[in-house]
Amino acid sequence: MQAEYTLDVEDHVAFARFHAHHSPAFRRTSRSLQLGLPVVLTLIGWWTFLEPSEPFLLAVWMFLMVGILFFFPTVLRHMHIDSLRKMIREGKTETPLGRYQLVLEEDGLHYVTEASEGYLRWATMGEVVKTGGYAYIYCNASSAIVIPEDTFKSKVAFDDFVAQATQYQQRSAEEVHGHPRET
Fold first, then answer.
1. Chain segment 83-132, per-residue pLDDT in tens
2. What are phi and psi of 138, to 5 degrees?
3. Which of 15, 33, 90, 141 has the fewest beta carbons under 10 Å from its own?
4. 66 by DSSP, 3-state: which?
5. Rounded Cα–Cα distance for residues 171 and 175 (Å)
6. How many angstroms separate the CA atoms of 120 and 150, rounded?
7. Which residues on neighbouring strands pair with residue 119, listed in sequence order?
């Protein structure tokens, strides 16, 4: 089974959003910053504005810290996505962008892009995830092959492709690990 399609920056942004939302490490870091930053800044404000003559400044400072507490995750996500867009566009090559050809085989995935060609064995790959108009075949913990649903002739064709990839990946995991990988 094979697929041919073209990826653009927004396809990679969709993966980054998905991964950031589902990655335990990214969520822990975001939560730590969301809670830790206001606490540290509140303590600094408390110490700085502790004078009885400045209760208004302390109140303003506390209001700003509460704002950080609630809005920081959104700002962090936007900064992450903006950085990703800039990194992709400023690169000397547009390796992650352009035409892709994927061929699913029982032992692995053969891929051809404008910049490279290779073969990835299912036993070395992570889970296959289908969500919100995309499928992601994880190559490792933080990167995946992005497959847009709208490049297939029908939803059924896309679902069949993803089901076949999932079946190959799970069969390989059972052979290697004795059980399917948890998704």
1. 878 877 776 555 677 899 999 999 999 999 888 899 999 988 889 999 98
2. -70, 130
3. 90
4. helix
5. 6
6. 24
7. 110
